[in-house]
Design brief:
Layout lengths: L1 H11 L8 E3 L9 E4 L1 H41 L9 H13 L6 H45 L8 H18 L5 H29 L5 H30 L3 H19 L15 H13 L1 H21 L2 H7 L7 H14 L1 H18 L3 H14 L2 H4 L3 H28 L7 H30 L3 H18 L7
Antiparallel strand pairs: 1-2
Length: 486
């Protein structure tokens, strides 16, 4: 024990650059742990920037570009000939007036309202299909990438090749999306883009377990949580602001940002060579069975279920945000107004969300507690879903966004830190955090399906908020059975 302690102190005393304190890896080919110094700051800086870049895709593409792309394509399918120039906003307001009993439709208006009903269901179902297919493929790929990333031996380390591939190739696929001429082609290209980008995001998240000491993982996860939120916000705001002028060409801007950030992370937050990594002979049976190892751990399994439920509920509430602004709120907004307003809903919660992310990450480290933060976040988010039911207006959606933003800000950093705390085998962090990511992907896959089904079956959006509230509350319940976890 004395020899081990002296070796550890000696390793800590060997600075890599001025002011650095780096703990050398215990196993050959694995990453050094950054206690403090320039290398720690460089890693955290580029980790945050790349997280922002990747999540800006989801804010810009899934939040603004993809729904508009789907709507443009479906408009061409449903409103043809003399109906091609129809004003959706006025037609929706007419429908709301008829529902309120203050107007009566003419025969021609009744025909157009039937088209509107079919169009509303079709665009919701098409968007759900495209979103879900990509997430399902990601569900299959991400854990596999996690396993192979644990075994990758290159002079750039275990994670860097996957991060570089995911960001560069994923960016090229985003560019191809711009030219998709049909729903089918758009679905295929987006499916590939989402899957490839996730080959970068999974290994990127794992670098926290690789390079951060235990007492700084909450802080690092908080920066990642901030990056997740800010990236989505940045992408959504810029896409919404510039859509009126450059439209779908915004795909090019997002793609360039992701590719640049991926290359910079690999170059300036460079990892140790993993060529000396000791790996066992690959066995396909053990490979597939390995995915179940983490889920055999009681604590890991319950945290995983909680993530599925909260992600499921959150995705249900956000999957059709653009369409909700056009068809749920009173009075209804036009497509241009909805496109500009959707990202502002995220902006409304920025101050409180940033504060919640930073405070929750640091406070959970200081108190040594994670579970209570997840429970509070889930309950608060569930309560926020009641607001649009009582206030089906644009202001109502803004209030919900603020309250929900606080909840999500509490949840993001602590959830990832909690998963790292309950890992059954730290040596297989990539594999098991890939399984953890599978929980997010599963919830994201189910969310659009449920949301579009509610719209298709009920012809409205209020059921979306009810379903979302129930799901996130159940996420809090799933955390209660944890044992030995504060």
């Amino acid at each position: 024990m004395g020899n081990h302690m002296s070796e550890t102190l000696a390793a800590e005393a060997r600075p890599k650059t001025r002011g650095d304190v780096v703990l050398e890896p215990a196993e050959p080919g694995t990453s050094p742990i950054y206690i403090r110094g320039a290398r720690s700051r460089a890693y955290l800086t580029w980790f945050t920037i790349l997280t922002i870049a990747i999540t800006s895709v989801w804010g810009a593409v899934t939040g603004i570009l993809l729904p508009n792309h789907v709507q443009i394509l479906e408009m061409g399918n449903w409103f043809t000939g003399a109906d091609a120039g129809i004003d959706l906003q006025q037609l929706t307001i007419l429908q709301q007036s008829i529902d309120a009993g203050t107007a009566t439709a003419t025969a021609e208006q009744a025909r157009q309202l039937e088209l509107l009903s079919g169009f509303n269901a079709a665009r919701a179902q098409s968007l759900a299909m495209i979103s879900t297919i990509g997430v399902i493929l990601t569900m299959l790929i991400q854990p596999i990438v996690g396993v192979f990333a644990d075994r990758t031996r290159t002079r750039w380390g275990r994670r860097a090749p996957w991060i570089l591939f995911g960001t560069v190739v994923g960016s090229l696929l985003l560019v191809l999306m711009r030219f998709a001429p049909s729903i089918a082609v758009l679905a295929v290209v987006f499916m590939l883009a989402q899957a490839v980008l996730n080959t970068a995001s999974g290994p990127l998240a794992t670098t926290v377990a690789d390079r951060m000491p235990e007492n700084r993982r909450g802080t690092a996860s908080a920066l990642g949580g901030f990056g997740n939120f800010f990236g989505g916000l940045l992408g959504g705001l810029l896409a919404g602001a510039f859509f009126a002028t450059i439209g779908l060409d915004f795909y090019f801007i997002v793609a360039a940002f992701v590719a640049f950030s991926g290359v910079m992370f690999v170059l300036f937050a460079r990892d140790r060579s993993s060529k000396d990594l000791e790996v066992t002979t690959f066995n396909w049976k053990q490979f597939f069975v390995g995915f179940t190892i983490a889920l055999r751990s009681r604590n890991f399994r319950w945290v995983w279920v909680a993530r599925i439920l909260l992600t499921f509920g959150y995705t249900v509430s956000t999957a059709l945000s653009l369409y909700m602004l056009q068809s749920y709120v009173k009075p209804a907004l036009s497509q241009a107004e909805a496109t500009a307003t959707a990202p502002l809903l995220l902006l409304a919660g920025v101050p409180v969300t940033i504060l919640a992310v930073l405070v929750a990450g640091r406070l959970s480290d200081k108190l040594g507690k994670r579970r209570i933060f997840v429970i509070v976040a889930s309950v608060l988010m569930g309560l926020s879903m009641l607001i649009p039911i009582v206030m089906p207006t644009v202001p109502g959606l803004f209030v919900q966004a603020i309250v929900g933003g606080i909840a999500f800000g509490i949840y993001l950093p602590v959830d990832q830190a909690l998963f790292i705390d309950v890992l059954p085998d730290k040596r297989a962090a990539g594999r098991d955090l890939g399984v953890a990511g599978l929980g997010s992907n599963f919830g994201q896959a189910l969310g659009p399906i449920l949301a579009s089904t509610v719209v298709a079956v009920t012809g409205g959006y209020v059921g979306i908020w009810i379903a979302a509230g129930i799901l996130v509350i159940l996420g809090a319940v799933a955390i209660l059975p944890l044992k030995g976890v504060k």
